[in-house]
Amino acid sequence: MPEAGMDAIALIEQQGIRVHFPMAQSCCGQPAYSSGHPTEAFDVAKAQLDLFPENWPIVVPSGSCGGMMKHHWPTLFKIQNTNPKRLIVPTVSLSLLISCLPSATSLKTKASQSKSPFTLPVPPAEK
């Protein structure tokens, strides 16, 4: 697991939120999809969707991951003539989740222990 993902989990857990993290999870499939490989992207998407059977929100590290899951996964499943039990995936970007929490200003991060600033971006309103 990349360090950024583990850092994201630490930030979320600092807020008292329990994190469900399937160790087998990987990418959303966006690199394959954007490279013109929809079959490979579908394989990745299906494997990831199977790891999240509950209808819990999935926190993603970037907007591109959320966009892939929200807008392109339905297309991939339609192309493959596959009808999963659940395809509407509630996703939220890490920056949006953290910015909505009242204690976001008191986060303990690696950046707060160094001389570099830590800023949470304000994401655009979701449609």
UniProtKB/TrEMBL annotation:
UniProt superkingdom: Bacteria
Region named Disordered: 106-127
Bias (Polar residues) ranges: 106-117
Pfam families: CCG
Gene Ontology cellular-component annotations: cytosol
InterPro entries per record: Cys_rich_dom
Domain Cysteine-rich: 3-70
GO molecular function: oxidoreductase activity
Protein name: Putative Fe-S oxidoreductase
Organism of this sequence: Neisseria gonorrhoeae
